[in-house]
Amino acid sequence: MKVGVIGATGVLGRHLVPRLVERGHTVRAQLRDPAKGRTLAGLGVEVVVGDILDAGSLPAAIRGCEIAMNLATAVPRPGDPPDWTANDRIRREGTANLLAACVSAGVPRVIQQSIAMLHSGDGDQWVDEDAPIETGPSTQSAADMEGLVRATKLDWRIVRGGAFYGPGTGRDASWRAAAR
Fold this sequence. Notes:
Shape: globular
Structural class: alpha/beta
Mean pLDDT: 90
Low-confidence stretches: none
Helix content: 25-40%
Number of helices: 6
Strand content: 15-25%
């Protein structure tokens, strides 16, 4: 399958792209920083420079692909000011740009990365897709993003992840300290 990945060098993308290649998929990765593309190109990934907030750069990243994966984020790292402005723009404007590009380029499927934190647990009750969504300042844009995806006529899937941990997430020290 030919897969276009937006956000290919982010926390999730840098782990997913090599696995897609290992499984025999043809991958085209869009990145903002061309210097980060050398490693991916070495894996056989076609690298395209662009930005999800630049609608004009998206067709080159997904044209001819069978699926587009939106993994783009700009989550504030621990220790940085908790400014969600860039991430909110990526979720709202960037996702709208990508969905429009998919329609115009004839890409039929989209996988959208989202967050599990949209569902607040209620004690020891199981939480599933029917549980109510509760938003706050850092999650409203994720609910808006999911609404954009659901409203499209494309074949879509939303994958909600939790908090990433481990090397390269920016949370290495805080998770280690919490574990101690």
